[in-house]
Amino acid sequence: MLTMNVDEILFEGMWDIMNGVTLNSYIVRGEKTAIIDGVIGWDGVPETLYKNLEEIGVDPRSIDYLIVNHMEPDHSGWISNFRKIKDDFVIICTDKAAKMVSSFYGEDKVRIVKEGDTLDLGKGKVLSFHPVPNVHWPDTMYTYETGTKTLFSCDMFGAFGRMEEHCFDDELTPEEQDFFESEGIRYYSNVMGTFTASVKKAIEKAKTLDIKTIAPGHGPVYRENPQKIIDDYARFTRYAEGAGKNEITILWGSMYGMTAKALGHAEKVLKREGIRYSKLEAARAGDSEIVASVFRAAAIIIAAPTYEYKLFPPVAAALSEAGRKRITGKAAFRFGSYGWSGGAENELKEIIERNRMNWDFIESVEFEGVPKEEDLARVESGILRLIEKMKEKAE
Ligand code: FEO
What we know:
alpha/beta, Metallo-beta-lactamase, Chain A, Rossmann fold, 6-stranded mixed sheet, 5-stranded mixed sheet, elongated, binds MU-OXO-diiron
């Protein structure tokens, strides 16, 4: 296994990876040598990969096959550089990846594989290939090594989060396990969320293979308990469809403190009821955090006023992003103030319907100007009903 921590970039050019991410690559050696995915710096130079190969005694020029499980450049971006030092390697990938390998890198020494095709490297090392389209690009496949029963799953079963000394599940401390569970949720919600239906199919395909180890392209390798990450991913698909942890995410914004006053009361109620919650000010929080937090919770509070006849824009943008990531079925409750006119509710409904989010809303509470005692009582009542719904959905 070769791995590299990456920080200080936006993953896919948009997701803040404040805790880093690893890029993992794997060498399988028989008489022939294959490398599964690559490790690439964002400058396109595979310095770390060459250094890592040297450390494990593999001359890059001895590599015969490049297995491209997925063409996204975090895994394949080193190909052009590699071609400069060696010309007689063959790329193994699906037909959809082959098209992109050609358009991105001008590569044509490609062997296209289909479900169940195999590559015998000699000395008992046999790889089989299993397309899992749309997790999250259409080109993706699993590679499975039949002798060690290792599934090289690329993005599937991956997680954000840098790895220090511990790369394997049996080495992780309880704190590191929690860290990768949390970073796994953030990764899934940010990168995979839109493709939950395809992820479910990929989980079913993994179940058809006799797996002893899962070796993803990002995050830890599961050699002691591969079932854990399969079960985690199955749970994440349910979070995408309305389940979640027994907690609430508050998405909020307030122009002059009127909605914030009602939110203060809401927080008192949540604390009194012993409910765990995260509070994100939409104008300040990043998309990665917003999407992950909404995805993770079984219930959402939207505390946002009307702004120019519509929903407060940062909150509207946050909800739209959750919708683009297909976060559906959450229990939700909105309250907020208005001045000379309402209008937030109309836009809220429009966002939910346009993105087919199918959130289960408690009736909203709107108030003119500052919230009065009766408004705060209605907010409290809404929150108590939301807590009941949260408990029904939580797992
Ligand atoms: Fe890890 Fe979809 O790239």
